[in-house]
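WARN retry 2 of 3 for item q-0093 after timeout on previous attempt; input resubmitted unchanged.
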Amino acid sequence: MKKGTILVVDDDSSLRRVMKIQLEEAGYSVALAADGDEAYDILPDLRPALVITDLRMPSGGLDLLRKIAKSDMDTTVIVITAFGTVETAVEAMKIGAYDYVTKPLDFDALVLVVHRAMERQSLREEVRTLRSVLNERYGFENIIGRSKGFLRVLDQASRVAPHDTTVLIQGETGTGKELLARAIHNNSGRRARAFVPINCGAIPEDLVESELFGYVRGAFTGAMTNKTGRIEAADGGTLFLDEVGELPLDAQVKLLRVLQEGELAKLGASAPTRVDVRVIGATHRNLAAMVEDGTFREDLYYRLTVVSLRIPALRERREDLPELIDALFKRAKERHGLSHAQLSRPLLQRLISYAWPGNVRQLENVIERLLVLSADDVLTEENLPDDLQATPSAQTTPLQFPLPEEGISLEAVERELIVQALARFSGNQTHAARYLDISRRTLIYRIEKHGLQHED
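OK item q-0093 returned
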């Protein structure tokens, strides 16, 4: 039997029975009513996916249609009208009917219209379910954390969500910047349109423009077709630029045009393309410092920071750890079908006391590792990664040196740190930049600023 019940409403008892037979042979469950009043009485309990109603009968179909349209029932309606009174069917469709069929009935045509209506109803149900899942997953109330600083961020995000204001989310890697961005999108007027995430640091520099802005056929050798860029794909919705600080300067200029003018320039195109996107940026870098370094455009920085939200690191909201560990553990147990697993008290204490430099993402990964590696229902510390099994004093190595009485040159300290980092990694700029927690472009800029040569 196909999903969903059909309610047939007609004062002709023989026609009702024939329609019931035809529709049941097509695989549907069918209920019957003799007029609009009887139909409306059984609708609340029956909740049919589809109503097929004659328009001309006592307590007629138009009244029934109006009642359904004003109710909270998500029911599709098909109306039956006599040949020559199609204008009444048109009126019914203005009220909210999906389609109409005329008498005398062509039952093959009726079944075809019913198929289409039920497919539409099924699609609407899928969309409702998906939206419910999104609301559950990405509603602000479902983001875990009740510490004062974290609640302040959620409050600010919920206030800005309904507006099309550009937002910059700052925070360390793994703090949940994309989760917050999705919550903002899902609580905005754009929730029904696309949320397009882009990791700016994961796109090779020579492909950034084509990936973000797209190109037209013939723009360059090998451009055999038009390509829709990720920004255009977000038209009407939200564009999430993760690690926006990694964008090359050329791409920053074009992104600024999108923000200011609402148009993008495709590679090879003779005219700009209009787009309507809300931009949410995210970064773990200090963009203000990058502006000073000349590696991030000042005008783009101010355009992105209309509203700036900073997600606290997990070590700054330690009171959230018990609730967060419990929620992540339950989610992981459900995902792996290990409902009987428990955390031992010493293990739980170790998880709560750890500093979590990788934040929520690291915590989630560690919990999953513990769950899948444990041979017993009670999880213990033996399957912790090495860095969590180390003593607390070995987990952090703060940089300490005495400051001279006569003062110190910050420029000289920075130069020496860069020299030592490059020496540690045999001149490898990528590794040195990662060690110093800056982008490679920022490192190159500072190498040039300090006039460093390879032999240095």
